[in-house]
Amino acid sequence: MKRLRLDGLTALPGQVWGAVRLVPLVRERPFDSLLRLHPQIYEIAPAAVRLNRPTVHQSYIPHGIVAQWSEGDPYVKTVGTRLTDPRRPAAAEVRGKPRAERRTVRRPSGNRLRFLPLHLSMEGYLSLHFGGPSMAWDEWSRLGLDEGPPPQVETAYPGKAVTGLGDALRVFEIHPEQCGMLIFVADALAGAFAVPHPEDYRLLHPTLVEDLYGELIWQYALFHGDVPDFGVRLREDEVHTVADLRAAVTAAVEEWGRFQLGTMAEGLLGADYRFDEVYAMGPYRLWRFQPRFEPRRETHIGEAITDEEGRLAYLHTFRLSEKQIRRGRLFDELADHDGRLEETAAAMGIDVTHLIARIDRAGFGHLLRQDVLDHHRARLRR
Amino acid sequence: METPADLAAEDVLLFVNAAITSTGQREFHSESGLQQGSLEFLHEYTAVNYRDLYAAALALGINDHNAALIVLRLLSTARDATPEQRRTEGPLIARTLRRLPPHRVFHLFSALRRARVNNRRTRALMREWLEARPDPAFDAVKYRAAFKTAVRHAHLRPDRLPGAEGELGAFLFASGPTRPFRTPIFEHWRRAHFEQSSVYELPYTVAEGFAAAHGIDRSLFLERIAPRLTRSERLRLQRSAERAEAASVRLDAAALARMPLTRLASYTLSMPVEERAGRRAELTAALRSAARRVAGDRAGTWGKVAAVLDDSYSSSGSSEKRRRPLAVALACDFLLEALAGEYHRLWLTGRDDPLLASAGGATALGSRILDGLELAPERLIVVSDGWDNAPAGMASEVLRVWSTRLDPERRTAVVHLNPVYDAAGLEVRRLGRAVPTTGIRDAEDLPELVAFARFATGRGGMEELRSHLAARVDRYLGEDG
Questions:
Q1: Which of the residues A37, A223, A329, B10 could staple to A293 if both were Cys, CB 3.0 to 4.6 A apart?
Q2: Are residues B318 and B388 in the same domain?
Q3: Best mutation site among A167, A174, A249 for testing chain B: the one with the most B CBs within 10 Å?
Q4: Within-domain flag for B250
């Protein structure tokens, strides 16, 4: 378990629009040509960005991107961020067959880059985090053992549905060195996003509105009024020269940045996470991380790429809703005890019947053998 | 303590600033519906509470959209006016109608008809305006539907209007094939229905419709209609003429230099950066000469001037007002260069080459204003939409601390010019209480606005404002054009 650290990234003062506060993250030292978006993504991007197409050593493709590599090819979807060799065609690399093709509702317009339709994206994403039991204990059904938990239909909302977020992203003024963003809705952290290089960021900024956000965020945006745009206050009695004033200005900007990272993003950066290494390539490691799930606590899961010094190159997080946290906890406990129901129940301080009731309510009853399920359902009714 | 009179002065300034900047079109931060609703409210509020000042606003260099709205409101609420107010409003309205471009006036006449405003005063104003037109036959062809509406609405006998050989009625109310007209332009219009060569004798906007009906090739059409184009039409068509390879529409360097400054800035910004770099000498010369023409004998008299110019992403405007704030900033840049003895330009992104300006990046006004103040200029002009966001409120704080601690004698006069109306806030966004902010529509008005700015903190007082307005109204009515 360790903390998530935004080394190399500095927060600048956020920009407020309605209930949305967008905090830009900038890098003094971008990763330049060491790790960049897969070149083929640049191929399909608007001409302006394509001008200085980087020669990269390693490349990545963010989770959930839908793109058509060339005319006539099928649209390719990435489930889970990929770390790849830039010289090899991405199309062959991208796995993640769409589980339900018919639900790929809309085709991406033109050659634009966008995120997966949110249900696919979210389901895919959570199933990356929650695997099935590894031992064939008696109680589990064939299906549960073979496939693990199936993707759930998650309640999540695309950025477009979150009131005001689309406008906030549209009027947001991107800083020249910007490599990332913290998105706050009603001053609750909705997600963090960081990439290795400003050009990558400019390319991906419009896709944030296609990204997905939890029910909590959707509600906050709908019911919360405008968040205050805290005005700066300089202390005039300490100013005697122009240099003093300039120093005061710089100090105020830095203080703002520290406050936003230290206090406002506490829920993301103050929690302990379990980092699972998914893939390593050259000096880079792709991680998925999740905290210990505790009900009624701000919970973010996500993916990150770090270099050998542990510097964060790529970050994408989701904030889970309360329901998802409870389910996450259930699966965590099950995984810790390798799917043994008695031990899991004991660890959670409940009996097996109630554990099974929880699994059932979470929508995973069919992973257990039907007779076991029926037996405990009957006991619960008594 | 604020007296009611001070409040009134503030209200009126609020309205004037809105009437200078807003055109009811979409802006970067607000939709067109919001702009129109917000503007509508301000018009109603000002007209009801300060009717004489509302009418006097016509003399204050407000934009054409709002001038037409004011005239419409004054005419439709004539009942609420005292006889004395009516006497002062009449000449102001007549003068404004003469100043406005004809399409605006015809648009206004149609709006009067839709609003069912048909009092005697309205009809008389319409008649006087139509009779004073230099060439009613031309107007009748160019604005046929609106002309017809106006004639009907004002109960006019079209054949009594001068200069159409008594054929105006026959032309306007013709249905189906007609006999040949004696008036040349009517005859061209009649023949253009079946004869391609007559199309080129008509005004461009009318000819365009006929050209489409005849299926005339675009490049051939532009080539032959070129002599009929007005100055603005020609400038507007530059890029599409280039695509259609119609060489005769193209403006040469001398013609470009005669274009109005802000239009020229908009045109410059419509080009890709590489093309601007390629035509650097030509464009710079044109912008400089346009700026010198505006500056006139004030050129070089402003002493040491620093300008903070906003080229943040929000200066890209909207799909309806493309790059308008940036174009105003660019035009101001060249104008201030002409006005100043010693000039320092400070673009927000740190760019030093105004010709290659493009909108991008955040609005860190505070530190840039400090850069400007450090140069200790006589005047510091800020041209920005006022969305100071890195961080919010820094510009206001810097200016406040500067004026209280470092420059209590006010050696530097700071003025903020804002090209964007903030519909939600019902005003142009300010940079704090200490700095006068006025709206700006065209860079050409900059010298007057800077002089007007001392009222813009709302602290000049009502009496002073009234006498200033009276002087402006007299001058407005005096200079006829």
A1: A329
A2: yes
A3: A249
A4: yes
The verdict on B85 and B54 lying in the same domain is yes
Specify whether B180 is located in the same domain as B313: no
Determine, for residues B362 and A24 on separate chains, whether the beta-carbon distance falls below 8 Å.
yes
B350: closest chain A residue by CA? A176
Query: What does the block give as tokens for A139?
Result: 């109680």
Chain A residues closer than 8 Å to B430 by CB = none
Instruction: For residue B362, give how far its alpha carbon lies from the nearest alpha carbon of chain A (Å).
Output: 5
Asked if residue B50 and residue B169 are part of one domain, the reply reads yes
* B249 lies in some domain: yes
Contacts of A246 in chain B (CB under 8 A): 367, 370
Are residues B304 and B284 part of one domain? yes
Q: Low-confidence residues of chain B, pLDDT below 70?
A: 1-3, 456-460, 480-481
Whether residue A251 lies within 8 A of chain B, CB to CB, comes out as no
Residue with tokens 């912008």: B287
Say whether A233 and B366 touch across the interface (CB within 8 A). Answer: no
* One domain, residues B248 and B273: no
Residue B46 in domain: yes
Mean pLDDT of A7-29: 91
Distance of CA A248 to the CA centre of its chain: 36
Contact A231 B390 (CB under 8 A): no
Cα-flanking dihedrals φ and ψ of residue A37, to 5°?
A: -55, 150
A241 to chain B: closest CA residue: B406
| Same domain as B326, residue B207 | no
The torsion angles phi and psi of B87, rounded to 5 degrees, stand at -65, -40
Does B159 reside within a domain?
yes
Chain A partners within 8 Å of B392 (Cβ) = 13, 15-16, 229-232
Tell me the ipTM for this assembly. Answer: 0.86
Helix ranges, A34-113 (H): 39-43, 47-50, 90-93
Q: Each residue of A70-122: pLDDT tens digit?
A: 445 555 555 566 666 666 555 433 344 333 333 333 444 444 444 444 444 45
Q: Summarize pLDDT for B205-237 with one digit per residue, the tens.
A: 999 999 999 999 999 999 999 999 998 899 989
The minimal CB distance from A239 to the residues B361, B392, B405 is found for: B405
Q: Report the candidate in A344, A349, A283 with the shortest Cα–Cα distance to residue A35.
A: A283
Helix axis angle, B184-192 to B204-214, nearest 10°: 20
Number of domains in chain B: 2
Q: B203 and B348 in one domain?
A: no
**The domain containing residue B438 runs over which residues?**
263-460
Q: Does A49 touch chain B (CB under 8 A)?
A: no
Question: For residue B327, what is the domain's CATH number?
Answer: 3.40.50
pTM (two decimals): 0.87
